[in-house]
Amino acid sequence: MLVSIYPFVSAFVIGPQKPKMTNSMTKKFYMQTDLESISHLKTMVGNTPLRKCSFLSLRYHTNVFVKEEFHNNPGMSSKDRPALFMLEDAIRGKKIKKDGIFVEASSGNTGVSIALLAKRLGYRSKIFISGKTSVEKTDLLKSIGACVEICENSNGLEDPHSTQSRAQAFVDENPDAYFTNQYYNPQNLHAHYQTTGPEIWEQTGGQVTHFVAGIGTGGTISGVGKYLKEKNSTVSVWGVEPRGSVLAGFLETGKLPGGKVSFDCIDGIGRNFIPGSFDPRFVDNIFQVDLEGTRATAHEYTGKTGFLPGFSSAAVLAAMDRHISTMNLNYLHTLVLLFPDHGSRYLSKLYTPNKSTLTA
User: Fold this and answer.
1) Distance of CA 286 to the CA centre of its chain
2) How far is CA 29 from each of CA 26, 32, 35, rounded to the nearest angstrom?
3) For the whole prediction, is pTM greater than 0.85?
4) Which of 10, 109, 307, 345 has the smallest set of CB atoms within 10 Å of its CB?
């Protein structure tokens, strides 16, 4: 046993020496700090407000509430929820090395969430986006520090030029990279089943009768729909997609159309393939809207309320306006509309005058 002849410094010379950290100990240390950081991030993501919209409630003679996902979430969109769940799953499952690269194919918001949260956890990010992604989202990704690669389209893994195929190819060639793959990652649906659905149920006191959201990957509507229908099977779950997208037809017939698919370009929603994150068992109907109607509705809503809805939020509003006669709503119903982000991310695409109709 070591004995110090200087009692006032004994704390520095008596006792076991600090062991040298082995590789396995280092990995365990980083895993622990990562999970602690994730636990902290979970307190920052979700718990977004639900507000009654007087303008829409009076207009449609029912009770319309807006789930404002641009509030509270650090990335200012609903995509923070699945992004955090996918990152946690990868880290807990040791699917990525410390300082590795998280990779995603995104129309923008999921990419922003992945990049932002990955950076907070000490990881890098590489985001593949299509050339139709808004300038605001692209600039935001770069400002966060993500490596951004622009692709021809987001038409799924079957197209070698798509965001999804390019992302997969990058991961195949880089062992330090992990593809979160929101289109097929079960954590996408799970995140909304675990968080968004319960929040809506609690915030409405279990009185929600209808839930309406745009469909891109399908994770939001499937996760929320699953939870709400488990609580009350009579809740109606309605999706919204652009004119020409394939999900409405697939929900009705179980089949995809033949030939080339072209749909109106509304950021974040619409597909020419069926994502694995979309579960039609929890969706009752899908309404289609056109680009010009969506843009007109966004401008009208801004003029009436002073609020700038995001692109897919405007599509939800357009669906209400166009299809209200088939919705059979009354003053006893409680509708929840999901607004996943804010219109400030689409100033160049949605709020600039004289934009021509584009297709994807």
Assistant:
1) 19
2) 5, 5, 10
3) yes
4) 10
